[in-house]
Amino acid sequence: MFVSDLSVEKWVGNQDEGTLISNPTWQEIKSAICELNGNSQTLVTLGADEEMYMSIGGGAAGKYIVNVTFDGMNFYNLVDRSQPEKMDQLAIGGQLGNYSAKLCVDLQAALLVAKTFAQSGKLEESVIWEDFQSLAMVG
């Protein structure tokens, strides 16, 4: 496995009582992503080092937002260009935000890109990635 840790948040009230798993297996990563529910569990992070990681957030109504950085400065977002120009409200990192619908992907896409990143540290090439633009308008 390329990633060295898996951060899984679990919100109890306004406190994050999540866990950090060192050297996670693919099954642990997959389970954490599948448990995202947009309520108590809204964010999973796959880390390689302090600057290189993939975040997968959301989970409510089968909608997930995925972004990756290799240097902690430049971010790439997984997008679904077939989505209409509208905003969806999702809880990520324990906070509600408004996100462009094109950033909301299904579980299958989130799992595909997570597996590629976890195993190789690379972006999945069969999907569309865009450079970071404003991910959310909190409000």
What does this structure look like?
With 139 residues, this protein is an alpha+beta fold. The protein has one domain. Helix content is 17%, strand content 37%. The protein is built from two helices and twelve strands. The strands form three sheets. Strands 4-1-5-6-7-8-11 form a seven-stranded antiparallel sheet, covered by helices on one side. Strand 5 (43-47) and strand 6 (53-58) form a beta hairpin. The longest helix is centred in the last third of the chain and has 14 residues, at 107-120. It starts with a strand and ends with a strand.
- Which class of secondary structure composition applies to the elements? alpha+beta
Tertiary shape: globular
Strand residue content: 35-45%
Are there runs of 5+ residues with pLDDT below 50, and where? 134-139
Distance between the termini: 38 Å
What is the residue-mean pLDDT, rounded to a whole number? 92
What does the radius of gyration come to?
A: 14 Å
The tally of strands reads 12
Number of DSSP helical runs: 2
- Mind summarizing the main beta sheet? 7 strands, antiparallel
Strand order of the largest sheet: 4-1-5-6-7-8-11
Helix fraction bin: 10-25%
Estimate nothing, just give the exact number of structural domains. Answer: 1
One letter per element, helices H and strands E, the order comes to: EEEEHEEEEEEHEE
